[in-house]
């Protein structure tokens, strides 16, 4: 039997899809090339913005048409579903549709009633029931209601077969409750994974020859986990980084780089900074979400730091890790935002000089405090302000990249370049992209590269001995 995954949203969703996929593989299922020919399709959803949910609503309409064709309903026609029609003639089973992830958790009680095309709704806390779903489909039993679990369960392994990079979830949920964010409402409160379980996954990834791992958490630097379950002894994020770095060094692991996402300015302390500065295996790249450059807006967002607080963290990072690259999240159009507030954000960007940023405008999310604020900014104004932020960041990115020209760096080769089959695309420790001439056999290997020129937001370089 075959399965097909569609994954939307953050890196945690990607990791969770990989973990669930391992259940299918263990049961002897194989991946289908398309949803049209799969026995089961799984949509892993995101609720961070309304646009993400709108995309899922559109996909559910498409799947309704697909299931009609697969069921041989009269008049069910769609050019994009022709492959499914041929599949039906060959005696295929009906399609089972599963929706999981944050959107499934948010709409847990109403989703299936509103969209009967869905066979199973699997909330954030119920992924361990996928084994029962697989069994029901294999035995052609009727769909059952998936019950939510009281606590989040970490999968033992989130590795996608054949990959040389992997995510390692170390904590789940968020205690910050920013007024604009739906994550605490769909992911719950913070839960940290025991150190023993994290190290077991890292050892398994080493056995698979993985070269790079990324530690994941909604607020990853707030990690505070037991050294092993039930021990009563705890480890913070800095101590975890030290433990991982020492373990990789002593075991001569295949893993050469460790990254982490995403940091909160209130949790990134000096011990974390010192760990990155001390251990080469910890990449000198920190994604430190600022969200805004106005203290008034930060307060309304419930970010619980001021611009001065944030800049103090940045100064300590840059003083101890001179080669660091900083990236961030920037939101414009938050309720009550003025032109003066936007200018403060632009001023902050000029001062910090991020290598890159994820920039977006505020999107009201049902159930969050900010959605009820009365001083909402018009979409037209949001788009204009976002354009100014994007234009500035593009200029800063270009200027910061030019400062790196002529330097020599280590890089991990990721893929063949889209522009030329004679070139490969690699990633630097600072999470920059560089294209250079090399054989595709170098994919998955660490190499040394000189950064020669810039092409957009990608370096062009030369491999050196």
Care to describe what's here?
- With 465 residues, the protein is an alpha/beta fold.
- It has helices at 11-26, 50-70, 82-89, 102-106, 111-114, 130-138, 183-187, 195-207, 237-251, 270-278, 295-301, 307-320, 339-352, 379-403; strands at residues 2-7, 30-31, 40-45, 96-101, 120-122, 165-169, 171-172, 191-192, 212-216, 224-226, 234-236, 257-261, 285-287, 325-332, 356-361, 408-416, 423-427, 433-437, 446-455, 458-464.
- Helix 9 runs parallel beside helix 10 (270-278) and helix 13 packs parallel to helix 14 (379-403).
Summary of the model, kept short:
The protein contains 14 helices and 20 strands. 35% of the residues lie in helices and 22% in strands.
Q: Write down the overall mean pLDDT.
A: 94
Query: What is the beta-strand fraction?
Result: 15-25%
Give the distance, in angstroms, between the N- and C-terminal Cα atoms: 48 Å
**Low-confidence region ranges:** none
Count of individual helical segments: 14
The largest sheet is: 5 strands, parallel
Order of strands, main sheet, comes to 2-1-3-4-5
User: Helix fraction?
Assistant: 25-40%
**Broad structural category:** alpha/beta
Task: Tell me the total number of β-strands.
Answer: 20
- Rg, Cα atoms, Å: 23 Å
Q: Based on Cα principal axes, name the global outline.
A: globular
């Amino acid at each position: 039997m075959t399965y097909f995954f569609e994954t939307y949203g953050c890196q945690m969703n990607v990791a969770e899809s990989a973990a669930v996929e391992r259940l299918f593989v263990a049961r002897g299922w194989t991946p289908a090339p398309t949803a049209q020919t799969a026995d089961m399709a799984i949509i892993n959803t995101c609720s961070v913005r309304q646009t993400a949910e709108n995309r899922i609503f559109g996909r559910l309409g498409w799947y309704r048409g697909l299931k009609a064709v697969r069921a041989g309903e009269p008049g069910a026609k769609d050019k994009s579903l022709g492959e499914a029609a041929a599949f039906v003639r060959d005696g295929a089973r009906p399609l089972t549709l599963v929706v999981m992830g944050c959107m499934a958790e948010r709409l847990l009680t109403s989703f299936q009633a509103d969209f009967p095309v869905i066979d199973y709704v699997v909330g954030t806390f119920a992924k361990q029931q996928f084994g029962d779903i697989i069994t029901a489909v294999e035995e052609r039993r009727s769909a059952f209601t998936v019950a939510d679990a009281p606590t989040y369960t970490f999968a033992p392994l989130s590795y996608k077969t054949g990959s040389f990079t992997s995510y390692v979830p170390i904590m789940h949920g968020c205690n910050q409750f920013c007024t604009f964010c739906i994550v605490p409402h769909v992911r719950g409160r913070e839960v940290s994974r025991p150190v023993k379980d994290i190290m077991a996954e890292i050892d398994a990834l080493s056995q698979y020859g993985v070269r790079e791992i990324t530690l994941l958490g909604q607020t990853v630097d707030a990690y505070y986990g037991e050294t092993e379950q039930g021990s009563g002894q705890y480890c913070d994020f800095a101590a975890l980084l030290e433990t991982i770095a020492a373990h990789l060094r002593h075991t001569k692991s295949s893993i050469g780089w460790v990254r982490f996402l995403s940091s909160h300015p209130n949790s990134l302390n000096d011990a974390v900074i010192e760990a990155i500065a001390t251990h080469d295996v910890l990449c000198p790249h920190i994604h430190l979400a600022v969200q805004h450059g106005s203290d008034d807006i930060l307060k309304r967002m419930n970010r619980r730091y001021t611009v001065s607080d944030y800049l103090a963290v940045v100064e300590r990072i840059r003083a101890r890790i001179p080669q660091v690259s900083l990236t961030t999240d920037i939101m414009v159009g938050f309720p009550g935002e003025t032109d003066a507030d936007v200018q403060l954000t632009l001023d902050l960007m000029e001062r910090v000089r991020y290598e890159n940023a994820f920039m977006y405008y505020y999107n009201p999310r049902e159930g969050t405090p900010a959605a009820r604020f009365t001083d909402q900014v018009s979409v037209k104004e949001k788009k204009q302000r976002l354009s100014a932020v994007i234009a500035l960041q593009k200029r800063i990115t270009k200027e910061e990249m030019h400062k790196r020209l002529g330097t020599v760096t280590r890089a991990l080769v990721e893929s063949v370049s889209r522009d030329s089959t004679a070139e490969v695309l690699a990633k630097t420790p600072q999470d920059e992209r560089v294209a250079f001439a090399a054989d595709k056999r170098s994919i998955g290997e660490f190499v040394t590269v000189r950064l020669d020129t810039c092409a957009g937001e990608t370096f062009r370089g030369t491999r050196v001995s």
